[in-house]
Amino acid sequence: MFQKMALAQHWRCASVSCHEYDQLETKDRISGNGSCLTAIHTLDNDALINIFYLFRPVLLDEDEVDPVRILQGGEWDRERWWYKLAHVCRRWRYLILASPSYLGLCLVCTYGTPVADMIAHSPPLPLVIDHVVRYHEVTVEDEEGILLALQHHDRVRRIRLRMPVPNLQRLIVAIGDHFPILEYLYIAPNTKHEIILPLPRTFQAPQLRHLVLNVACSIGSPLLTPAAVGLVTLSLNNILSSAYFHPSDLLLRLSLMPQLETLGISFHRPVSSHYVERQLLHTPNLAHVTLPNLRWFGFQGVSAYLEALLARINTPLLQKLQILFFNQLTYAVPHLLQFMSATEDLRFSSIKFTFHERAVIVAAYPREGDRSYALSMAVRCRHLDWQVATIAQLFNTLNPLFTAIEHLTLDYYGHFLSSEWHNEVDHTQWRQLLGSFGKVKNLAVDKELVGGLSRSLSQDDVGPPLELLPELNELKVFGRGDPGDGFVPFINARQVSGQAVRFVVECESDSEYEWDSGSDW
Asked: Exposed, middle or buried, 424 (CB in 10 Å: 0-12/13-18/19+)?
């Protein structure tokens, strides 16, 4: 209550004269020409406005790597940067409010904001509606504030709603109007769900540039018609079986969006690969699409659907590819190989495999030490033996893309390896996986994985000592636990062969990798 009263007073004082400017002028006369106060207040209006312009914060940090945060558009609360500046003195307030377009001014409607007071006592600036609920409920006052802001549909610039389904159901109804300046729309429930929450068909946003929906959206929605030609971001998440659309329908819509830079397609549950393949047999002449500006592509689903898309999409400037496959018996991905081979920026020198108790995750980087991946691939499956077999099968097809890999990491994320999860891995599967990386010079292995991997490397009867990892210079063991002497036979064999391998054991540390199986793009 105190916070809301303070915010209400904040907006009322915008129409009340303040004394700061007079006080600063008095200090100016007393302090003399050498003071900082004199320097700032002797600047002309144009210089001050340019300083304010440069003071504007960025909404999304350049080093951000989390795809979910990227799709959410960054820290929208930073849009309030000018609030305090406008209350420094009368001159600053007049200058700032006289240049709203140049400075990109807007009003932020978020938690605890007294929206009615803000709108009543502020200039008619664009509105940003930002409610991403994670750890608390949406109050009645917050919901009423959102509804009031949506009534000013001609002023709404961005909308971001992530909250419980009941709240979304009530608020989505209020979006059925014409939003002439809306640029960004992000709608998602804060938990996984199987409830259809379609947008009203009366909703129109001709200036929409970023569309991220984690609610059911028909491929025939007005949002995905020729009116969507200006979309820069399109992410359709949590697509239910009842809202499933054929790859040809998606390709047709994508052909209308040449400005796309970010594309994400995520299915809620796996669709049968046989079902997708039967559909493709009846539609052999699918359209070919070029997306000349696409930089990031994310997909979650079955490999057959992805293969149908990649066979007919050209993305010459793609920089990031993120794939999450549902568990399948087999993975045929020849078009994925061709697609990545034709994309010049998808080249790698470092790769990391993380074996999680619910999935195996691959992250490949252009250079060693990079924080931002160029390829992220995950397969949802349990048990270590199945994970190794699955990823070995995929890389048996994709290995031409990884011939330049010099740094390989095999990581484990979890509290411990249970006997149920840590099933014995077939040695040939480990060897098949490692055989995809003939140029590796540095291998790092989590201590939890040493046992099975060391036995695979030490099988002299399978092949000569230099058959696997022939250019390896360093083998490092990291993580918690005791690695024992599992790699001793392998190290000794390399020593006898004339190619010594430096063996390093790191001190105990926790893994830095965390994978959220419930996250969307």
From this structure: exposed
